[in-house]
Specification:
By secondary structure, this protein is mainly alpha-helical. It has 18 helices and no strands. The protein folds into three domains: 61 residues; 111 residues, no CATH class; 278 residues, no CATH class.
Amino acid sequence: MLFSSIPFLYYFLPAVILTYFFLPMAVKLLLKPLCKRDGLADKLCLKLRNAILLVSSLVFYGWGEPKLLTLMVFTIVLFYGCGLAIGWCKRTLFRRLWLIVSIVISVALLGFFKYADFFVDTFNSVTGLSIPLLRLALPVGISFYTFQCLSYTIDVYRGNVASQKDPISFGAYVALFPQLIAGPIVRYIDVARELDSRTHSWDGIALGLRRFLMGLAKKVIIADNFALLMKLFRESDQPSVLFYWMYAIAFMLNIYFDFSGYSDMAIGLGRVFGFNFIENFNYPYLSKSVAEFWRRWHMSLGSWFRDYIYIPLGGNRVSKARWFLNTLTVWALTGLWHGAAWNFVLWGLMFAALLLIEKFVPALQKLPSFFRHVYVLFLIMISFVLFNAESLTQAGTDIIGLFGLTGAPLVTKETLYYLGSYAVLFVMGILGATPLVKNTGLRLNQTKVGAIMEPLVLIILLLICTGYLVDGSFSPFLYFRF
């Protein structure tokens, strides 16, 4: 089920919200006279809410493909059991054994479903054999919830958090539908307290719904329309050099508004249900270095690789050769995490090389701010062209096309037509990728007129998004394939 779909917006979400808030309240009123201990009714109410979240999340996940529920339930049972075993065992050897069990099984499942055909195809290319591909359907969001579960058992093993004893609460954490299929990657340690004790308020619900609607608008109005332009580029018989540039910039804005829009929706829904998820984006296109870009882009993934891969490998507190290897390993894995294809691996290694260059060429940081900003945007654009290519050959063609090396004309009437048609969208995208729109909205909201107009603006955005969805002019979230 998609957040940006009529069934979710008008059937599933309202039903879940009403059930989540009113059913536990009714049960609480019935049980309160029978509960002699102070706070017992409130605890039972929260447990019921966690159960509602778990059931609704499983329905959400199994909506399109019920068979995937088996894998989800198995994942919940596996990590719940391993977490309990790690918490109960006193000897380090046994604790480590259960940690290894959780890592090996989960990574094996991820590798089987996501990378089996990639490895078989690569093996066939190297050996000349023709081993048939498995062509398995990729379980939606498996990369995200696998990393979340791994952070749980690792943190329990490290003693950073106690194991969760309540299977319902743990299941709700793993399957929590707001961030289940495209992040942000929420670590158990960050929501452990809220699973057992959280508060709800009208202000929190209002802020959450506002954040959700803003994310929906980013996805449906901006990202999906850039996706249409990218489709037109692929369908063009002879794209011009200008069209190559329009495509590259369109994808930069498309992937940002698509993914940050989903993150906004996830964070907003989390707030509605009393959870405070971490931020995932912080205007990455304002960066003046590649390192800064990765501190601002998909922050939950970057911090996960840092804390669970890079630092355990030794980080930069090792010899220079080992540090190089650590950096290359982490970024190769980062690329592979995004997709089972060589362009993703090269994409990750490209960033490893750029980060190492920045580290050993300090003169780059002494350049004027404007030039640093331009060179970072250019490199990010090239990286995303590689990222979005269906093959290395296509990536090469798209990149050299930016420099006019494909023999394409500089500009055509077709390109000028599309440039005029999408000019307003480009302006919206560029401005929306800066804090300007958000800050302007916050200042207006502090005025009486702005406070009155805000609900109307949000309703209008919802109606516009609904119009797009009814028309069918939308595309799935990019990160569903990861």
